[in-house]
Amino acid sequence: MWLTVAPVTAQEVLLDRVAVIVDQGVVLESEIQKLIADVKRNAAQNNQSLPSERALRTQAIERLIVTNLQMQMAERMGLQVSDPQLDQTIANIAARQNVTVDDIRAQLDADGITYDDYRESIRQELITGEVTRANVRRRIYITEQEVDALIDIMDQQGAEQAEYRLGHILIGFPPDPTDEDIADARGRADRVIELLNDGSDFARIAIASSSGSEALEGGDMGWLNINSMPTLFAEAVQENDGEGLIGPIRSGAGFHILKVMETRGIEKVEIEEVNARHILIKPSIILSDAKAEKMLVEFKEGVIAGELDFAELAKEHSEDPGSALRGGDLGWADPNNYVAAFRNALATLEPGEFSEPVRSEHGWHLVQLLDRRVDDATDKRKEERASQLIFNRKFNEETENWIREMRDSAFIEVLEPTNS
Fold first, then answer.
1. Degrees (nearest 5) of the Cα angle 293, 299, 304?
2. Which of 19, 71, 379, 417 has its CA 20 to 30 A from that of 388?
3. Whole-number Å distance between alpha carbons of 351 and 346
4. Per-residue pLDDT tens for 13-28?
5. Using CA atoms, how far apart are residues 65 and 21, in angstroms rounded to an integer?
6. What residues does 334 pair with on adjacent strands?
7. What is the end-to-end Cα distance of the chain in Å, rounded?
8. Which of 196, 149, 140, 152 is nearest to 171 (CA)?
9. How far apart are CA 385 and CA 212, in angstroms?
10. 163-172 and 25-28: which strand pairing?
11. Residues contacting residue 373 through CB under 8 Å, at least 6 positions apart
12. What's the half-sphere exposure (Cβ side, CA atoms, 13 Å) at 154?
């Protein structure tokens, strides 16, 4: 089918042009104008004032120079974002904003932006972000001293916010107590501790036995900050990590027994850990999937029957070099550190039980859960949080340095438009 081409009329057409040469790449005038238009549109939506057109153009050119250099570096590094990855990212953006992808399309259309342009801008953000992370991450070094210093600051800030609802029982001394009076008070305090540990009601014992001013309130001292409670109590609460019964603590007035009844403003993180062992068999050209599975079934039957020893089997047959020499013992670990199939198998087991053979991406596993425990991960989380905060600060600082160095070492030529 032939198409009739309309004759071209004599009309001045503004053609795109190269505005900046950036090493092996270029920035086009159309890119500059598009970025300026985007900035103006966002400013109008947010009622923000803008600098002069010249200043705006200068800033836009600088932004595009850096982006161009990053994209050139990404090409050299072989970094790409596939269409499926891009579509998933946009779907995630929509989900975070509680809208659909169609809603995003409609908003873009209303703003005069094509969906294809939007997709490519997201692709570019992902690529430049990965280039930056890859290059800046290796410039960052965090010392233990930096982490410890920040944890100390976090602890001080946390101590100022933390509050404890304390129960208090005082087994008091008479005036001018003798050694016998002190020993008698200590004996009564020990009996109170014993009763409380056996489940007796704290308030009832406080009302019956305490010489403290809060006795009629069941020993309830109310909510107290570490800095507002008696120094003797503050030290004991902190040493005991603010948990359970504390004491007897001796003072000039007698023996004090404390109970932390509630806390607030205190971050405490507990995680379940598992102690497990396993035998890993990897299928190969010689050993089929079915034979590997059957091998572990026979191992399990032999161990349960008492004819085989799990640890010896692991040492002889397991292909996990990290645990085989320890009889397959993986030690205590957060189950979330394991691959899904392994983690799911552990979740169904009681201590001492064996799983059926489990297939993961590593091969076939025979798993035994040895035990479970709940571990206090508060300090570990503090350390992780402090490290992340330091990393973020240094990352921002080093990103600026890296961009400046990259920009300074590149060949940049800004081409002024001709008047013709």
1. 130
2. 71
3. 10
4. 446 899 999 999 999 9
5. 9
6. none
7. 41
8. 196
9. 41
10. unpaired
11. 272, 273, 275, 332
12. 19
